[in-house]
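pinned: reference chain
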Amino acid sequence: MKKLVAMAVVLTVVFAAHLYAKKASTTLYKIKGGITVDAKLDDWKALGIKPIQLNKKEQVAIGGMIWDSAEVKPSADIYVTFTDDDIYLLADVTSKQGIFNNKTEGNIYDGNSVELFVGFDNSDPNREIYSQSDYQIGISPGSISKSTGKYDPKPSIYVYNLNKQVTAGEVKSRATKKGYILEARIPADVLEGYDIVEGLEIGFDVALDDQADRGRTRKIQLTWEGDKDDWQHPKNWGQADIKAKK
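pinned: its structure tokens
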């Protein structure tokens, strides 16, 4: 009986430690003015904003064996910042297929794309389901025709849990030698509960979706803190503290 009691205590401690394990945390900045959405790093470097890096095996949430064997291992430096009126994101992506996503609206996760997860009320960081101020936002670089050099489809922004394409924002992509740069402005007025102030702690994660070199659907996903279930469980996300950029 004593052994059973001791085992139960150990299991309880292990479960509690797992449940309340310290989440990854970062600092994100609120800036004045805005950023020119041109798929270039100039503004970000001038502001001194550092990226979230997705480039490690332990960050691979989907397709670990494919990532290991990929000719070009998908990775990204992802920059995020806020203003009173907008969220800005830039992703500098390493990708074999580059600007290629033939999906639209709520299916853009299934091609080369970036996902942003934000929760503006993080009072319960272990919440199982999305609250009214939690969002999964997908950003697609679109797809460039090799014959015409034109986009079809065009770059786009989609808020998955609102089933809504963001037409009032801005999004641009540009091919690079190693893949592509994707930059977007997401208007705050499409996100209920948006109120970014210095000292606020938010739920936060970013993800990279990539087709690798094996077809026309997503084969690999990397996440900063979460896993493949970020889209339904905010408890998997990390967190970010908001500071005003001086």
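why pinned: Confidence is low (pLDDT under 50) at residues 2-20. The chain has one domain: 25-244.
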